Amino acid sequence: MAVLTTENSEKVSRRYTFRRGIHPSEHKNLTESVPITRAVLKAGSVVVVPMLQHIGAMCKPTVEVKQEVTTGQIVGNSEAFVSAPVHSPVNGVVKEISPQPHPSGRKVISAVITVGEEQPTEQEWRKLPGSYDPDKYDHETIIKSIREAGVVGMGGAAFPTAMKLTWNPKRPVHSVLVNGCECEPYLTSDHRLMTESPATIVAGVQLAIKACGAKRGIIAIEDNKPDAIEKIHAAIEDIDNIQLAICQTKYPQGSERQLIKAVLGRVVPTGGLPREVRVVVINVATAAAITWACLEGRPVTERIVTVTGQGIKEPGNFLVSVGMLLSDLIEQCGGLTDTVEKVLLGGPMMGLATPHLNVPILKGTSGITALSRNETNLAEETACIRCSRCVDHCPLGLVPTQIAHAIKARSLDVALKYDLLACIECGSCAYVCPARIPLLQYLRAGKAMARIAKEQEKPRQTEAGSKSRE
């Protein structure tokens, strides 16, 4: 089907975009037509449930070693405002509670659970119950359900969704912007979700609108997904306060700040949140999680993951238990090819390379990309030729080379002067650099330096305040 346009529906907006950006090879053909199947956990295998799968305070284990747990049972929680509980994805027994390898590269306290022989009947996730009525749910009920289900941003940011959607009279929300762009090359988990379960997404958008008191919802999809556009359009045809915005295919169209600018023409200030421009942004997978949390009290114990790249023998899209090890999931895809060079958690632009496969799938893991030697650029870094391509393509108009030079010289004040903290770490600068300078890595290192400097400054400020009071 051709991409829908404004001529055949008032609910479909013109193609929106933003300035600059890049057009990397998509490579989505590997999995975009592959239906979602359930990844199977074998009895006797283990799942690793980290106590940190979100932005905010780490959870504390609520179970003990040798304790039997059931699917959906809380195994970690926190009383902190910015946090989200974690749940067991299986029926099993807690084998140990200890620091385990985490996708972030460090070790995090985790509940290691041995999968039991008896597992609950598989739950339907594609179709809504026939009794669903959005008018039966009020703000308090929705937020409580989302919080108890441990819903976080499933596009990768993993910000606790209950906190994001909580109604705030000082910062009222006009629009809930739903990100279905999935601009990262290779990944198709959101695409398949929109194609196979549009009603679940739309129901989640309706609930999100009610939760934060917004006037409308806008589902944004890039125009390289005509089948998803058709399905979502049909699902919202009889809903007055949800619209569809078709965006031009460009990277990083799915970035929160770029999407808001493209669709609504509003600019989120550096260091600010979308609420400052009366917008809340959620991912389509998050919307689906909201639906099941509210309708059935179903916690986030599984998510859709794309396993792709020429380094994978049988690429596909899978409904995966949160906590399943990468090694077990990759095994169900036939394993790695002999030409594999690098395995990424995420896509090739923003994904993090993992040195081993004994790390778990998290709530925010949307994909695993195994790149072959042909797909990996192994060229050595050379001197900057001052071509300004990184500046021309940076979606925020930064000067990445100047920031990188400052970071290499350990001049944090200079990097901050060039607006280091505005960087969204999209990797566009490194992608277009003919000198193959790892600009993204330098900028990430600079932001880490800034965080450390800020943490070191707090005790000094506290000490100075104490002396002044004396």
Q: Fill in the CATH topology of the largest domain.
A: Rossmann fold
| Beta-strand content bin | 15-25%
Question: Share of helix among residues?
Answer: 25-40%
CATH architecture of the largest domain: 3-Layer(aba) Sandwich
Number of strands: 18
Please tally the helical runs, counting DSSP H or I stretches of 4 or more residues. Answer: 13
Q: What radius of gyration results from the CA coordinates?
A: 22 Å
Amino- and carboxy-terminal Cα gap? 74 Å
Secondary structural class: alpha/beta
Strand order of the largest sheet: 2-15-14-18-16-17
> How would you describe the shape?
globular
Give the averaged pLDDT, no decimals.
Answer: 92
Biggest sheet, open or closed, and with what strands and sense?
Answer: 6 strands, mixed
Corresponding CATH superfamily of the largest domain = NADH-ubiquinone oxidoreductase 51kDa subunit
Low-confidence stretches: 1-9
